[in-house]
Amino acid sequence: MAGIHMVNLRSVDLNLLPIFEAVYEERNLTSAALRLAMSQPAVSNAVARLRAVFNDDLFVPHGRGVSLTATADAVYAKLHGVLSTVRDSVSESRGFDPKSSTRSFFISVPHPLGPLLAIRLRDRLAVAAPGVKVLFSTRSRPVEQEQALLDGRFDAAVDWLVPERNRFSETVLFEDAIVAVARQDHPAIHKTRTKKALNALTFVALRPRVEGGSLIPGIQEWSHLMPNMALEVSEFLEVLVVASQSDLVGLIPRSMLKLARESFQLRALPVAVTTKTIPIKLFWTTSRSADPAQIFIRKQIESASRAVTGRDLR
């Protein structure tokens, strides 16, 4: 790791590591002190010792907080997963009580229903596990998702693209599909009845997340139709906006139809885009399969996904 010299762990106070994590995540010494139930001078002293250990500034004063050096980013990427694993091991040895637990989870949900799933999950946890904290990444093109799961930065992911490695477990949450939508007064709403007519339209769609062909049958089937793509965007929300404000026909997951109708006044074209579905899966690192807390949060995700999608998508 660039900028980090080799150190003898026996000479390092390992109590400094949670302090590093808190300052990194809070970007503020006072906030980190409150989080750790320490005084600010004590945190400042610990940061000074950390700088000596790593031979780097790590946290540079900036405004009312601190900015991070490249070395701090590199240390956190390695350290956070290790600390999470240690906390999980301690919690598992003591048992898991949702009502009293203060565990934190980080879930990746690239599927466009991610924000809605997050809301439903938070509502459920407010009752079942009020002290549990869940953070979400809803980027449609997550960076290094597989490695983040292996490192412990993500506890689980909901996606249609699944890791190729054999170190993950998975379950299908629901079956999705590709549908075409257009504004209510679009001529295609009444005239498009066949695949040939569908192929004559011009589309806006999400930019492909992977290079080359997809192994998912539902996506493969659509790509073989060679659609006339006028615009590719980074988020499905942009597809809905463009389709509602233009003559372009949007391509979206079937699970977004309710949102498309109610919020953007879009209607689905009366012709099937594909005959094959796209399984939306929940997956996680196999080594964490037996963790009671992880089992609990996965069950909560499954229940939340049913509330968001409805029975018609299962």
Mean pLDDT: 82
Structural class: alpha/beta
> Might you state the CATH topology name of the largest domain?
D-Maltodextrin-Binding Protein, domain 2
Radius of gyration: 23 Å
Oligomer: single chain
What does the overall shape look like?
elongated
Topology:
Elements (H helix, E strand, L loop, with lengths): L15 H11 L2 H8 L3 H15 L4 E4 L2 E4 L1 H25 L9 E5 L5 H15 L4 E5 L7 H7 L4 E4 L8 E9 L1 E6 L4 H4 L3 H5 L2 E5 L10 H8 L3 E6 L2 H9 L4 E5 L3 H8 L1 E3 L9 E8 L6 H18 L5
Parallel strand pairs: 3-4, 3-5, 8-9, 8-10
Antiparallel strand pairs: 1-2, 5-12, 6-12, 7-10, 7-11
List the defining traits of the structure above:
alpha/beta; 314 residues; D-Maltodextrin-Binding Protein, domain 2; 12 strands; Arc Repressor Mutant, subunit A
Task: Write structural notes for this entry.
The protein contains 12 helices and 12 strands. It is of the alpha/beta class and 314 residues long. It folds into 3 domains: 9-77, Winged helix-like DNA-binding domain superfamily/Winged helix DNA-binding domain (Arc Repressor Mutant, subunit A), CATH 1.10.10; 98-174 and 279-313, 3-Layer(aba) Sandwich (D-Maltodextrin-Binding Protein, domain 2); 178-276, D-Maltodextrin-Binding Protein, domain 2, CATH 3.40.190.10. A 5-stranded mixed beta sheet has the order 4-3-5-12-6, sandwiched between helices. Strands 9-8-10-7-11 form a 5-stranded mixed beta sheet. A two-stranded antiparallel ribbon has the order 1-2. The radius of gyration is 23 Å and the shape is elongated.
Concise description?
This protein has 314 residues and is an alpha/beta fold. The protein is 42% helix and 20% strand. The chain has 3 domains: 9-77, Winged helix-like DNA-binding domain superfamily/Winged helix DNA-binding domain (Arc Repressor Mutant, subunit A, Orthogonal Bundle), CATH 1.10.10.10; 98-174 and 279-313, D-Maltodextrin-Binding Protein, domain 2, CATH 3.40.190; 178-276, D-Maltodextrin-Binding Protein, domain 2 (3-Layer(aba) Sandwich).
